[in-house]
């Protein structure tokens, strides 16, 4: 049995580990990783708030502290849900900006411009108007895959246009900061 285990470990070390290392260094994978790392503080805050909003106690508990916590969370649920919705409820916006900014660094582009371009592209794709209002259905976890695709595509398009010098030409009277942004 130990020889089978040794053979398995050898195959993993010789074949799979180098391949996993190469995949892990790929610019899209590192950009996705960095984008999620950018959004991680917001997800942590939202997760902690979720514990406060929905206490880990049964409603029929007799412990005084637990009953007080449960009652407080019921009385103030709407107020407690607001910061949760502003963290976990819009996490795809943070992820889209983070992925695009990280990918822009690989292309030596302005990361803020790429992030804002990705954010606007994501809003165009994932926030259609419904009855005169913007739908936020894909701003939470449901829109993560869309955010990843939009961030990569918009940044790659931005890099392509910059690489081929396809930009809007402005007269020299326009301030340098404004001219650089387009």
From TrEMBL:
Alphabetical list of Pfam families matching this protein: PTS_EIIC (PF02378)
Domain PTS EIIC type-3: 12-182
Keyword tags: Cell membrane, Membrane, Sugar transport, Transmembrane, Transmembrane helix, Transport
GO molecular function annotation: protein-N(PI)-phosphohistidine-sugar phosphotransferase activity
Membrane association type: Multi-pass membrane protein
GO cellular component annotations of the record: plasma membrane
Annotated localization: Cell membrane
One Gene Ontology term from the biological process aspect of the record: phosphoenolpyruvate-dependent sugar phosphotransferase system
Annotated TM spans: 35-54, 84-104, 111-129, 141-161
Name this polypeptide is given: PTS system protein
């Amino acid at each position: 049995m130990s020889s089978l285990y040794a053979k398995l470990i050898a195959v993993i070390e010789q074949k799979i580990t180098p391949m996993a290392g190469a995949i892990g260094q790929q610019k899209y994978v590192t950009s996705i990783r960095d984008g999620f790392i950018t959004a991680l503080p917001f997800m942590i805050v939202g997760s902690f708030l979720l514990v406060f909003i929905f206490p880990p106690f049964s409603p029929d508990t007799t412990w005084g502290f637990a009953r007080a916590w449960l009652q407080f969370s019921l009385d103030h649920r709407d107020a407690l849900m607001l910061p949760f919705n502003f963290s976990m409820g819009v996490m795809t916006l943070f992820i889209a900006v983070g992925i695009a900014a990280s990918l822009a660094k690989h292309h030596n582009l302005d990361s803020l411009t790429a992030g804002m371009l990705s954010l606007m592209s994501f809003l165009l794709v994932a926030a259609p108007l419904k009855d005169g209002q913007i739908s936020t259905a894909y701003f939470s976890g449901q829109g993560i895959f869309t955010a990843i695709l939009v961030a990569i595509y918009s940044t790659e398009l931005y890099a392509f246009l910059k690489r081929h010098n396809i930009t809007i030409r402005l007269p020299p009277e326009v301030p340098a900061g404004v001219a650089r942004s387009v």
